[in-house]
Amino acid sequence: MPPASAFAALLNDQIANEFAAHQQYVACAVYYDSRTLPRLAGFFYRQALEERDHAMMMVQFLLDTNAPVMVSGVAAPDTQFEDVVAPISLALAQEQRVSEQINTLAATAREHGDYSSEQFMQWFIREQIEEVATMTDLLRVAERLRHDEDDIEDFIAREHPDEGESADPTAPRPAGAA
User: Fold this and answer.
1) Which region among 34-38, 65-69, 117-121, 163-167 has the lowest average model confidence (pLDDT)?
2) Using an 8 Å Cβ cutoff, are 12 and 69 in contact?
3) Nearest Cα residue to 28 out of 65, 69, 83, 106
4) Residue 56: left if φ>0, alpha if ψ -120 to 50, beta else—which one?
């Protein structure tokens, strides 16, 4: 059964939002790379891939439910930052905005009695709680250590190692995944 048309329209918009978040995180990573802050750069490159996967999970859901899929363009991301804290502050605001968008999607599905779509959104609701918490903590640390970038790098190395996280077995499958 296809999702409610109102939900499908919002989910297509969210696909664009997720791709925009991907681009913004790439821009943050490039900024940190240009400042030779490899841990922060790596953290944001990984975040970018996560956002891309979220978009592709949404694409796959629409494909699986025989709903139209729209892949639209996105606005250019912010690429100029005043200091090491600014990209993290932007990222937190972005994650808070995405949380609101995800909650609106779940509410729309519920309003239309579209329980399959509502259930699909539950994973994203849980994911957004984690994302906002992660960015909140990182922002607190970065604000406290804004004049000691090496200590921020140490925090990332300690708290967010780049050893490759194991895949969440409850996560929806992204389109194109093997």
Assistant:
1) 163-167
2) yes
3) 83
4) alpha
Specify the fold of 5-159: Ferritin (1.20.1260)
The structural domains of the chain, with segments of one domain joined by +, span: 5-159
pLDDT, residue 112, reads: 98
Quick check: 163 pLDDT over 80? Answer: no
User: What is the per-residue pLDDT across 70-88, written as a single tens digit (0 to 9) for each?
Assistant: 999 999 999 999 999 999 9
Distances (CA, A) of 70 to 35, 51, 60, 106: 36, 17, 12, 19
Neighbour tally for 135: CB within 10 Å: 21
Please count the residues of the chain. Answer: 178
Secondary structure (H, E, C), 112-138: CCCHHHHHHHHHHHHHHHHHHHHHHHH
Which two structure tokens, joined as six digits, stand for 74? Answer: 């996105």
pLDDT of residue 119: 97
User: What is the reported pTM?
Assistant: 0.93
Q: Looking at this protein, which amino acid is placed at residue 174?
A: P
**Residue 101 pLDDT > 90, yes or no?**
yes
